[in-house]
Design goal:
Helix content is 34%, strand content 25%. It is built from five helices and six strands, in the order αααββαββββα. It has 155 residues and is an alpha+beta fold.
Length: 155
């Protein structure tokens, strides 16, 4: 049975409330199902290969509900987040960067990057959202700390 959008949205909000009550201390049942999806496994594997520069990665549907994720997040519904709101106005291929924030769920300072996903006909169907760990990105961009000069020898 296909649910009407309003009914589906109400269900999403109920599931989000249950998710937030349990996460991050315990894994809500739905999160286990989402983390087991092949898309979630692929996101987690990709994220692991990014030298800790990416703190979290998830795909959301047109309502803002997470459909795949690399790690447990603090909430299921992203529709009230600024990064999702930016997706609604973004053109295909556009990347939106949020301001630097401290994210309690990752315990890192990060910038959120998001890009919309559109169908072949151009209809908005969701988006890809990821957290960029600013400290790690800068560390890799600048490279290792330069070696300290040798201490002068006394005469």
């Amino acid at each position: 049975t296909r649910l009407a959008p309003y009914t589906r949205f109400q269900q999403l909000i109920r599931e989000d409330r249950q998710w937030r009550e349990k996460a991050p201390g315990a894994m809500p049942e739905l999160s286990e199902q989402l983390l087991g999806r092949s898309a979630s496994v692929a996101l987690a594997e990709w994220q692991a290969a990014q030298n800790k520069e990416i703190t979290e990665t998830f795909v959301v549907n047109w309502e803002g509900g997470i459909t795949a994720l690399s790690r447990l997040t603090s909430d299921l519904w992203q529709g009230d987040e600024t990064q999702f709101q930016a997706l609604l106005a973004a053109e295909p291929g556009e990347i939106h960067l949020e301001s630097l924030i401290y994210d309690a769920s990752t315990r890192r300072f990060q910038v959120i990057a998001s890009t919309p996903l559109h169908s072949d006909s151009g209809r908005f169907i969701g988006g890809l959202i990821m957290g960029l760990d600013v400290e790690q990105v800068l560390r890799h961009a600048i490279g290792p700390e330069p070696a300290k000069p040798p201490s002068p020898r006394p005469y």
